[in-house]
Amino acid sequence: MAKTEKRIESKTSRTAEYTCMTRAASFYEKTPQYKSNDNIAPKLLPKFFIPVIKIGMFRKFFTNRFPAGMYEYVISRTKFIDSVFQKAIYNEFDQILIFGAGFDSRGIRFADLNKKTTIFELDAPVTQKAKINQLKKRGVEIDSDITFISIDFNKESLEDKLIESGFFKNKMSLFILEGLTMYLDPEAIDSTFKVIDQFAGAGSEVVFDYVYSSVLRGKNLYYGEPEVLNQLKNTNEPWSFGIEKGKLESFLKDKNLKLIQNLNSEDLENMFFKDEQGNTIGRVNGTHCIVHAKKAKGLFCG
């Protein structure tokens, strides 16, 4: 049977577009808990779309079309990973690698804070080219510390591509896999984390999000789960990987990582969606968790 071509091989990733639209909409929010500081995201969208997310009632109509709690989830994920990214720059990590970078703008947004960290953005050629072209079209300066790595995973070696692009082994590095693990199969997960372990020097960290394995089985245990699964049916970017609840530390140990934080939807609500009186003003989709981990000692055993 012929292999089905994935959308990202011929078109820009819908996931990347969705995340960019969410960040752009969040930038125009007035409520502090919902507002992000991603001022670049609106510039990565077509100009005709800006009124849809800039005008309150249109923005509300647009965001209400997302699966329950996913707008809140992407906002909180963006803010949390922003904080990890900024801390890595502050602590003068040697390099940061963003897997499946999509329309990420952290290298641009935090350029003024960056003294020595080289940022690498890894993505499929079509999505990466679309992003670079749009940045140039809108007159957004791309910092010289950002290196773009275009890769065809079907034909090119990740390890070779990183070396060719100047990403060094045994340096203190931050690896970001945002909105990515659920789209990889178990073999790709193992090979990706093996490469991370091979390149990560002492003090290196990883931040990634994942879905519970039960979600892939359609158990309907979490807030917003049916809506998320229904949306996935309409794309050619299906989920294929999850982690069983309670099995995260075992997963990390196998990948030579040690847990710093594992944030579920309740944790994210407490961090980002509480008002001054302590009331929750936004519910976060319950299918996802965010992990912040650090390199452990020993050899990768995956």
TrEMBL record:
The keyword Nuclease does not apply. SUPFAM superfamilies: S-adenosyl-L-methionine-dependent methyltransferases. It is an enzyme of class 2 (transferase). Keywords: Methyltransferase, Transferase. GO terms for biological process: methylation. Belongs to the UPF0677 family. PANTHER family: S-ADENOSYL-L-METHIONINE-DEPENDENT METHYLTRANSFERASE YKTD-RELATED, S-ADENOSYL-L-METHIONINE-DEPENDENT METHYLTRANSFERASES SUPERFAMILY PROTEIN. GO terms for molecular function: methyltransferase activity. It comes from the Archaea. It comes from Methanobacterium veterum. Its EC number is 2.1.1.-. It holds the Pfam family LCM. This is SAM-dependent methyltransferase. NCBIfam families: mthyl_TIGR00027. InterPro entries: Ppm1/Ppm2/Tcmp (IPR007213), SAM-dependent_MTases_sf (IPR029063), SAM_mthyl_Trfase_ML2640-like (IPR011610).
